[in-house]
Write a structure and sequence with these properties.
The protein is an all-beta fold and 219 residues long. Helices cover 2% and strands 34% of the residues. It is elongated. Bound molecules: FE2/S2 (inorganic) cluster.
Length: 219
Amino acid sequence: MTLRKSANAPLTHLLQPLASREEISRPSRRIPAPPRTPLRARGVEGTTADPITPGGERPFVRVASEDELRGDGDRVHVQLLDADGAPRHVSLINHDGEVFALDSLCYHAGGPLAAGDIEDVGGSPCLSCPWHLYKVTLRTGEKLYGSTRLDDDGVTLVPDGVKSVGERQRTHETELREDGWYVRLRLDGVLESDRFANKRVPGISGARVVRVDQPVIAA
Ligand code: FES
């Protein structure tokens, strides 16, 4: 049966008494936030990470199906929630049949590096950051640049090959398993891209949230 709104229906809601001044000025009661769902161990729905063992290596975490990264140029952007709940934006990119993973946001100023075009720079495939066109290698996270030197006349600048300023962008391990692509974060030391690992950039970050398991507590 379809209920129709009648034009003659009594407007009873308009007859309700107005709230008293006291009620209006009373601060609204805070509704307590629901308890945070604790991160749970492997086997729980939505969690596809290897367990973290005390003192052991970080886990591999499933982040994509094989199909999602099958073609050259395919990309998957994920937000990994670490065991302590901290998010990290990581992108997986298929280039020429090889799948690379690196921090999504550019070490320079937090631009959407992982959405950049891929260019060959001195034989290394590099992401070209859309914001300031820095070239960052997919394989090592180094920033490359075209160097110059003074010619023999001491006046003219001439090209001097491609050089690296060193590793700036964090890269991560990838692994294809029977049920899809896994990534394992490499978090040793400190790298410049760490400053932006948790930031948000529209269109690139947080496309998919994947949880890393809680550490397994030794008995
Ligand atoms: Fe990427 Fe500046 S933010 S080059």
